[in-house]
Task: inverse folding
């Protein structure tokens, strides 16, 4: 029997879920800060902003389509750079657009904004720097570049009196970045959480709904185009980690390197874990979480960041549990406004293109006027950790014999870790018996030490699975 305390896993009530939750997707403003003395005026009102598009792939085609359809707007596409334009050139686009395979043709032209959509660190990073130094603003959807070099590029944009907009780098068409940076600019955010990778969410919700294995769900995701031939960046958490770094910098105002944030793969999740999760009124999702705590003393202030990307149990009644397929969700929790929620489909050419064009409109609206300074420069935390003090889920597969639970309990007790509940479903063979322990809230670093000892016991058929349980 599952103790009633586990009801906490599903807060469930609408009042609990809705309290303080509001969507933010309104006005847009600059995400960079430009001193008035350094402002270089953009085109005067009435003259269209000239756009140079670097990269004509899936997103680039959608951006071009939107720009060329909106002929009455303040934006005009004048240049497109791509390799092998003989194959890429689109005859349906206006004849005035100059197609080129030479990036210098764009960077030395009279375009006002360069839109970088080639991805990766190089040569994209070099071209973005050159564009800013040439007096051009930049819009990018390049999460890897912003994750690795975002603070440096923002500083360069400030120095040049230009703008660097990167709203499309996280969650595609969901206005999370601008919502956080402008809509919540007056708040003090202390927590960012979300489902940031649509591939992982598709796989996990497929396993949940159909009872299929991880491998089968991954294969279907690949067949449908949700997963790459090499899915490691998605399923092992690196893609979501890059997005979490950007959100941490933008929302929590903390500079952090991706290697400081641990990430764990979802590949260890089995169909049986969803069976046990249902018994706990829960489900499993890949959760990206960053939490900022500030300890103030009389003479000093210490800032700690706890951040990780990992599969976790969450209440079945929670908003994140209802994210299906390739949906993304970002939540931002502040001191004054409570929890804000941004959700939608974060991937694909059209949603991402909408975010890119929205960033272009932000720049167009700012023409001739310096952007308002955003509060607080990003700082480096004193401590970065991947550990949280939360309840945990442990799943074991063992060769059954007397004394197994006693051996596990002895080690956990040595580390002052309390067992909350024990669950065992019937029907498993004694040679590979599956059962689950849930633990009361404990430090994940301490639990890791206990699990190192537990892993040495000789009855395991496969390594124990440990998942945090996030109740909120």
Result:
């Amino acid at each position: 029997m599952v103790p009633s305390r586990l009801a906490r896993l599903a807060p469930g009530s609408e009042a609990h879920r809705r309290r303080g939750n509001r969507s933010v997707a309104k006005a847009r403003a600059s995400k960079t800060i430009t001193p008035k003395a350094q402002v270089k005026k953009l085109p005067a009102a009435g003259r269209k902003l000239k756009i140079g598009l670097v990269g004509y792939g899936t997103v680039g085609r959608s951006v071009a389509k939107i720009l060329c359809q909106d002929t009455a707007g303040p934006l005009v596409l004048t240049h497109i750079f791509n390799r092998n334009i003989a194959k890429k050139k689109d005859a349906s686009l206006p004849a005035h657009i100059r197609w080129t395979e030479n990036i210098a043709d764009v960077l030395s032209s009279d375009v006002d904004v360069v839109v970088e959509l080639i991805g990766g660190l190089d040569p994209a990073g070099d071209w973005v720097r050159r564009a800013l130094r040439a007096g051009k603003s930049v819009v990018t959807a390049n999460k890897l570049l912003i994750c690795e070099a975002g603070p440096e590029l923002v500083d360069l944009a400030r120095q040049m009196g230009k703008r660097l907009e990167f709203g499309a780098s996280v969650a595609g068409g969901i206005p999370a970045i601008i919502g956080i940076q402008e809509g919540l600019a007056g708040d003090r955010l202390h927590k960012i959480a979300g489902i940031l990778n649509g591939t992982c969410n598709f796989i996990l919700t497929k396993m949940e709904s159909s009872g299929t294995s991880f491998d089968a769900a991954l294969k279907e995701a690949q067949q449908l185009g949700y997963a790459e031939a090499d899915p490691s960046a998605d399923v092992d958490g690196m893609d979501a980690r890059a997005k979490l770094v950007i959100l941490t910098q933008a929302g929590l105002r903390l500079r952090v390197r991706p290697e400081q944030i641990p990430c764990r793969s979802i590949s260890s999740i089995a169909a049986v874990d969803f069976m046990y999760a249902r018994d706990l009124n829960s489900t499993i999702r890949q959760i990206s979480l960053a939490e900022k705590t500030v300890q103030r003393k009389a003479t000093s202030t210490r800032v700690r960041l706890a951040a990780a990307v990992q599969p976790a149990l969450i209440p079945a009644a929670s908003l994140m549990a209802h994210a299906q397929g390739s949906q993304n969700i970002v939540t931002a929790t502040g001191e004054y406004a409570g929890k804000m929620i941004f959700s939608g489909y974060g991937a694909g050419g059209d949603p991402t293109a909408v975010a890119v064009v929205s960033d272009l409109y932000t720049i167009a609206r700012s023409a001739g006027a310096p952007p308002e300074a955003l509060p607080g420069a990003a700082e480096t935390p004193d401590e970065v950790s991947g550990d949280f003090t939360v309840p945990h889920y442990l799943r074991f597969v063992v060769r059954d014999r007397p004394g197994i639970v006693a051996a596990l309990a002895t080690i956990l007790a040595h580390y002052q870790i309390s067992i909350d509940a024990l669950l065992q479903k019937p029907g498993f063979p004694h040679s590979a018996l599956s059962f689950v322990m849930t633990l009361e809230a404990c430090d994940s670093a301490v639990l890791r030490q206990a699990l190192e000892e537990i892993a040495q016991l000789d009855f395991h058929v496969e390594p124990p699975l440990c998942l945090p349980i996030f109740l909120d």
About this structure: The chain is about 30% helix and 25% strand. The domain at 389-468 is CATH 3.30.70.260 (Alpha-Beta Plaits). Residues 1-42, 368-376 have pLDDT under 50 and may be disordered.
